[in-house]
Amino acid sequence: MFPKKIIELLQIQYPIIQAGMIWCSGWELASAVSNAGGLGVIGSGSMYPHILREHIKKCKANTSKPFAVNVPLLYPDIDSHIQTIIEEKVPIVITSAGNPKAYTQLLKENGCKVIHVVSNVKFAIKCQEAGVDAIVAEGFEAGGHNGREETTTLCLIPLVKKHINIPLIAAGGIATGRAMLSMFALGADAVQIGSRFVASIESSAHQNFKNSVVDAKEGDTVLTLKEITPVRLIKNKFYNDLAATYNRSASKQELIELLGKGRAKKGMFEGNTDEGELEIGQVSSNIDNILPASQIIEEIIDEYKSSLMEIKQWD
Amino acid sequence: MFPKKIIELLQIQYPIIQAGMIWCSGWELASAVSNAGGLGVIGSGSMYPHILREHIKKCKANTSKPFAVNVPLLYPDIDSHIQTIIEEKVPIVITSAGNPKAYTQLLKENGCKVIHVVSNVKFAIKCQEAGVDAIVAEGFEAGGHNGREETTTLCLIPLVKKHINIPLIAAGGIATGRAMLSMFALGADAVQIGSRFVASIESSAHQNFKNSVVDAKEGDTVLTLKEITPVRLIKNKFYNDLAATYNRSASKQELIELLGKGRAKKGMFEGNTDEGELEIGQVSSNIDNILPASQIIEEIIDEYKSSLMEIKQWD
Question: Which one of A164, B41, B89, B186 has the lowest number of neighbouring Cβ atoms within 10 Å?
Answer without folding.
Answer: B89
